[in-house]
Amino acid sequence: MKQDPGPPRGQDVVPPPWSLDDPTAAHAVEVAPRVWWVGDVVDDPFQSHAYLIEAGRNSVLIDPGSSLTIAATLDKVREVVDIDDLRWFVVHHADPDVADGLHQIDALVTRDDASIVSEWRSAVLLKHLALRLPLATVEELGWSLAIDAERELRFLLTPYLHFPGAFVSFETSTASLFSADLFGGFNRHDGHAGGCRRSAVSGRQSLGAESG
Question: Is residue 14 part of a domain?
């Protein structure tokens, strides 16, 4: 069963930038047509973000999140699609803040054609999560993924930003760049760690995995 759908969907997409302090952050937020922010707002200076590309039975969850955030993320996903509508789980790198939630996803997804998508170096690390879901690499996919007849994800390598096999994903129909950690930062200030992510790009927008 789908949960409370939250804010109405349609043409009035919430334009970036928007604040995590906004009440809409309690629900899935449509940041581009059928592209949803489904992250969790946590009491921590290190904020990770997950995104859903709504495409019926071919839906995509990008950078699912950690064990701290995955329950809230999946609740927001259910506002838009059923969990078994998720076919692909794009993981831009294997850090626990974006990948550890795969444990819970692995236990919930029942369809046999679902797959995790990552770069081969991250896939080497993700194998150690001992998941049931298979791993497909962006190299094996030819650096692109056809979501449906209208939309495609194109994968671009961003080596050492901040992982040797780091990459970003570009969704063609909305010109949305899922920038992962590309614009991120990490430092200590007054005993707190923090990052920074979310910036506009040519086309529509950049949607990052972390912010502080």
Answer: no
